[in-house]
Every structure is written in C-alpha cells, then in structure tokens.
Amino acid sequence: MKTMIKNLSFLLASVIILSACGQRPSENLAVDMEDVEVGELQISSETMNEIIQNIASPIEVAALISSLNIPFSTSYLADPDQLSTSTTSFEMAFYLGALSADLGYLNMYEKTGSAVNYLSSINRLADALQIGQFFDFATIKRLATTSSDLDSLMFISVNSFNNMDGYLRETERSNLSALMIAGVWLEGLYLATQVSTQNQNEDLESMIGEQKLILNDLLLVLNNYRNVEIIQGYITDFEAIKKAYDDVKITYEVGEPQTIEKDGMLMVVQSETSHVNMSNETLQDIVNVTREIRNMYMNI
C-alpha cells in the first residue's frame, strides 16, 4: 500500500471555459427543450454550490499535469467534432463539460491553435442549449487563446458558469447543469488517470484518490433525476466508478490555523492535510473503469 499526502490550502472551483471563436451554425444542434422540463433541483442551492466549489477545475488538473513536465498529448483529448444532429440536450450538456476540461488542458500547454476547434464546438453547444447569452465571449476568447492571464480566465469562467447554472435552475433545467458538472469531472479524471499510467507521481495519484469524495457528491446531485431514463444511465455508470474506489481510504490531519487577507479583511482559516491510502491495484481499477466509461460517452 502507498500513502500520499496533499495540502488542501487551495480553492477548488468548477470552471467552464467558453468562446465564440470560429463559430459554426448552431441550427444543426437545435434541441427540443421539452425533454428537460423535469429537471427541478431537489437539494438546496447551498449544497449544490458547495459541490460545484469542490470539483477540481480543468485548469487546475492541467496545471498539475503541466507542472510535472509531462509532455502534451492529443491522445488524451475528446474529438470536438464528435457531435450529431440526433444528440439529445442531456448528451450535449455532458459533452460541453468534457470539452471544457480538454480546453483547460490545451490552454495550459499553450496549444492555442488546437483550442480553436474546441472553442467553436463549445460555443455551438452553449447556443443549442440556449445558454450562450450568459458568457462574455469576447473576453473569454481573448483570454482562452493566450496563456498570459490564467487567473483572469478562471475568474471570468467561474462567473460565467455561475450565471448559466443559476439560469438553468430558474428554468427548471438544473438536470443539464448537473450533467455539465459530471462531464467536467469525468474528463478531468480521465486526463489525470491516463497521465498516471505513463508517469508515476504521488501528487497526481493523491488527486485521483481524493475524487472518491467528489464522486459521492456528484451522485447525490444526479440521483435527484434518477426518474429520467437517460440520467439513470449516467448514474449506473458513475456507480461503477464509485465501486472501483471502495478500497481508497482518506484521512485528514488538522494543522495550525493560518491568517490570510481576503477582500481587505483578515481571516483565520484552518489548514488541513489529507492522507490518501490507495494500492496500485486499486489505482489500476480506477484507470480501467474511467477509461471504459469515458470513451463510451465520447463516442456520441
């Protein structure tokens, strides 16, 4: 068995990175919104917000991979053109999240040329789902095609996601929001697990192990919509990933309180260190089931 330690002093945020760059007609992806009118959120907004904040952002996952000096590989990425006129709104929402994770990976490696196709596809999906109006496309386009200001990119992207998420809840389409979050999470886990098969690193494996906690939260959200047949399929598949995590053990060690400045005010925060205990066999099980399920969904 191996024990991996990771400091949890940083903020985890769910980032959706969108742009209007290289637009293609969105009429080809028009959807009937009647199939998503049953998506009223049954858990509190506070709980939903907390779950969103605890999902590692695409930029954060990519930043960790990049910091390990691991070479860039297009083989990890989904096909941005793998879209169909018969694709449902549920599949679009999930795919939008997955492509956002890939876009974070591309930007971290400064692959701005390749990013254009992802930006275009994400824009088409957002327009088809009638949420494209909630994004500052001009600003995000400028930031997403350069690597000079990732902090601003993260801030604006999170703000855009929050606006979209709020609108989907108001219009009783929070099931689509849940699937976008699930798409971000699964693609991020896939990137991390695929890299881990070629490059052993304790920080990376620790992050993979800690996704056990996030997965429990995702299933809590998805189970709100278990009466929708297509979402029940997502739940079944994510339960299979959860089973692979059964033998992962996570404990926490409380550290010394730290004083930080936020918005001009001093705040005392409690530092915490997580300890992830996971065998090589368990890690391989997670890698295998994640790859199988992710590849199934990316062949829409």
Main pleated sheet: 3 strands, antiparallel
Radius of gyration: 19 Å
Helix count from the secondary structure assignment: 10
Strand order of the largest sheet: 1-3-2
Our count of domains comes out at 1
Number of separate strands: 3
| Secondary-structure element pattern, one letter each | EHHHHHHHHHEEH
End-to-end distance = 38 Å
Q: Which class best fits the helix and strand makeup?
A: mainly alpha
Calculate the mean pLDDT score and round it: 78
Description:
The protein is mainly alpha-helical. It has one domain (12-247, 281-297). The protein is built from ten helices and three strands. The protein has helices at residues 45-53, 58-67, 89-108, 112-128, 137-144, 150-170, 174-198, 202-222, 229-244, 280-297; strands at 2-7, 249-262, 265-278. Strand 2 and strand 3 form a beta hairpin. Helix 2 packs parallel to helix 3 (89-108), helix 5 packs antiparallel against helix 6 (150-170) and helix 7 (174-198) runs antiparallel to helix 8 (202-222).
Topology:
Layout: E1 2-7, H1 45-53, H2 58-67, H3 89-108, H4 112-128, H5 137-144, H6 150-170, H7 174-198, H8 202-222, H9 229-244, E2 249-262, E3 265-278, H10 280-297
Antiparallel strand pairs: 1-3, 2-3
What characteristics describe this protein?
single chain; 300 residues; mainly alpha; 10 helices; 11% strand; globular
Short structural summary:
The protein has 300 residues and is mainly alpha-helical. It is built from 10 helices and 3 strands.
